[in-house]
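Sample log: VOC family protein.
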Amino acid sequence: MTSTVEGIHAVILETHNWGRTAKFFTALGFELDFETDHHSGQFRADGGPTVFVVEVPEDEPTRSSLVLTVLDAATYHPDPSLQIEEPFADTHYGTREMVVRDPDGRSWTVRAPGGSAR
């Protein structure tokens, strides 16, 4: 049995200026959930997915990505037609994630709660 993606968990955005981008999201009505000590933080607005913003050096291009949610990495069996770049693995922040590539070459992260697959 193949379980399905539950929805969008988060949007991850890279920026060259954390402070300016934080002010932008606050002006849009997002609330800052938390800020890290390395120029990043998470925003939330009324029940939607979180937006995690992280500053990267000026000489690096900025990227954005979506994080999709599944309930359990152990029971999620992706369709064999999916191109898996990275299988589920533990993260340093307590989840398990895998990365798949879509037909246009974009990477998508699929996230499950930590400890659900061994």
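Observation: Strands lie at 7-15, 31-35, 40-44, 50-55, 64-69, 83-90, 95-101, 107-113.
Observation: Residues 100 and 106 are 8 Å apart (CA to CA).
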